[in-house]
Amino acid sequence: VQLQASGGGLVQAGGSLKLSCVVSGHSFSNAVVGWFRQAPEKEREFVASINDGRAYYADSVKGRSTISRDSAKNTLYLQMNSMDAEDTAVYFCAAAPYKYIRDYDSRNKYAYWGQGTLVTVSS
């Protein structure tokens, strides 16, 4: 199973960005998928996930982010709006070979990871 994240870049504060993650080698239409991020000198943190068909978000992005997936394209997306400097990080997509996991915000529950894509928000 391979995950390839893309879509990162430089965005101005208040702007928007859409990240993509292509999954190959496994059908992930029913698997738990998610996005995490890691800022410099900080631990990797949960951003959003789709777990048993429902979307979950970290408080820091709730209301201004949308996670979605296109099963036909085996692609996961993360749309982020009203971005600020706190969103600057490397963003990772991840997948777990289950339909449901209780601790969907724990990175330890995800077996497969993409390589990360850097997002920089300029103020």
Write a brief structural summary.
The protein is mostly beta strands and 123 residues long.
Major β-sheet annotation: 7 strands, mixed
Average pLDDT figure: 95
Number of helices: 0
Q: How much helical structure, as a percent, in the residues? A: under 10%
What's the SSE pattern?
Answer: EEEEEEEEEEE
Radius of gyration: 13 Å
Poorly predicted regions: none
Query: How many individual β-strands?
Result: 11
Spatial shape: globular
Distance between the termini: 37 Å
Strand content: over 45%
In terms of structural class, how would the helical and strand content be classed?
mainly beta
Topology, please?
Blueprint: E1 2-6, E2 9-12, E3 17-24, E4 32-38, E5 45-51, E6 54-57, E7 65-70, E8 75-80, E9 89-96, E10 112-113, E11 117-122
Parallel strand pairs: 2-11
Antiparallel strand pairs: 1-3, 3-8, 4-5, 4-9, 5-6, 7-8, 9-10, 9-11
